[in-house]
Each structure stands twice: as C-alpha cells, then as structure tokens.
C-alpha cells in the first residue's frame, strides 16, 4: 500500500511538472506575441502584414510549442552536436544528388549549418532576381513557383530542394 501511495505521488507530480513547464512556455510565448502586436500597432503597420506576422507566430507555436528548435542543441560539444544534427537531417541530405557521396565529416558540418525555417501559406520564400545565398529543402508541405501573374507554374513537395549552395 505504501509503494502504491509513493507511485501515485510520483506520477501525479511528474504530470503536474510537465503541465507547469508547458504553461510557462505558453506564458512566455504570449508575452512575446503581445509585445510584437503592440510594436506593430505603434509603428502603424499594415493590418494585412500584422495578420501575417501573428499568423506565423501562431503557426510556429503549433509546430514546436515554444521550444527554440534552432538553438536547442547548442550546449553540446561540437562533434556531438554534429552527430545529432546529421541524425536529424540525414534523410533530407540523402535526397539531394550532390550530397549523396560526400564525406561523413562534410555531411556533419553541413547538418550543423542547416536551419529550420517555417513558412506559412502566401509567404514568399524568394523573389525572382534576388541573389541566392541559401538552399532550401522542402520537408513538409508544398512550395509553388509563381509566374509574373501570380499563377503557380510548378509545385515542389516533400523531398524537393531549390536555391543555391554557397
């Protein structure tokens, strides 16, 4: 009976702690979004752009629940961080022919350099004529290439890539 009481206390404490951590991230997120909304109002930003900005923050919250996915492993030693990054990005790199037969060290360092970007619908990733400095990998969703009239000419889906590699 005593073991049962301790087990019940442990489980309920763990659940409470998890909910508390999520709630603190949510409060921090809400404070940040409110500060951004206030700044956009102070700057008289266009209402459509305000809606797009807040939509992006809502989307990223739904995707990662307040975890800083870009810096989450920065505390790890470089070699270990490279291994972790490669384990997370290996499937993406395998889909790009120019990276298929590269060395393990190169793939690890390339994986560390990769950054996750979230784009919402109706967001332009790049515009025609811009100087390319990045390569993009479509991991989820769809990216449309538009003609000058704004009509989709070509769609890229999961596994596609575009852009330049410096």
Automatic annotation (TrEMBL):
Against PROSITE patterns, the record matches this protein to:
CNMP_BINDING_1, CNMP_BINDING_3
Cell compartment(s), UniProt = Membrane
Listed A to Z, the keywords are: Ion channel, Ion transport, Ligand-gated ion channel, Membrane, Transmembrane, Transmembrane helix, Transport
Residues annotated as transmembrane: none
**What is the topology of this protein in the membrane according to its UniProt annotation?**
Multi-pass membrane protein
The keyword Transmembrane helix is assigned to this record: yes
Q: Which organism is it from?
A: Allomyces macrogynus (strain ATCC 38327)
The record, for CDD domains, names: CAP_ED
GO cellular component terms attached to this protein's record: membrane
Q: Does the keyword Membrane apply?
A: yes
Q: What is this protein called?
A: Cyclic nucleotide-binding domain-containing protein
UniProt-listed Gene3D superfamilies:
Helix hairpin bin, Jelly Rolls
Which residue numbers delimit the Cyclic nucleotide-binding domain? 98-166
InterPro entries in the record, alphabetically? CNG_cation_channel, cNMP-bd_CS, cNMP-bd_dom, cNMP-bd_dom_sf, RmlC-like_jellyroll
GO MF terms listed in the record are: intracellularly cyclic nucleotide-activated monoatomic cation channel activity; protein-containing complex binding; voltage-gated potassium channel activity
């Amino acid at each position: 009976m005593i073991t049962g009481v301790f087990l019940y206390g442990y489980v309920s404490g763990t659940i409470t702690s998890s909910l508390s951590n999520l709630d603190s991230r949510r409060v921090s997120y809400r404070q940040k979004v409110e500060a951004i909304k206030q700044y956009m109002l102070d700057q008289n930003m266009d209402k459509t752009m305000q809606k797009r900005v807040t939509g992006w923050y809502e989307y990223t919250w739904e995707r990662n629940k307040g975890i800083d996915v870009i810096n989450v492993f920065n505390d790890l030693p470089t070699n270990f961080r490279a291994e972790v990054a490669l384990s997370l990005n290996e499937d993406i790199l395998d889909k790009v022919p120019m990276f298929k037969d590269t060395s393990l060290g190169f793939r690890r360092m390339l994986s560390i350099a990769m950054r996750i970007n979230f784009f919402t619908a109706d967001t332009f990733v790049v515009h025609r004529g811009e100087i390319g400095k990045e390569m993009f990998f479509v991991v989820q969703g769809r990216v449309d290439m538009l003609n000058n009239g704004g009509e989709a000419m070509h769609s890229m889906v999961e596994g596609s890539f575009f852009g330049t590699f410096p």
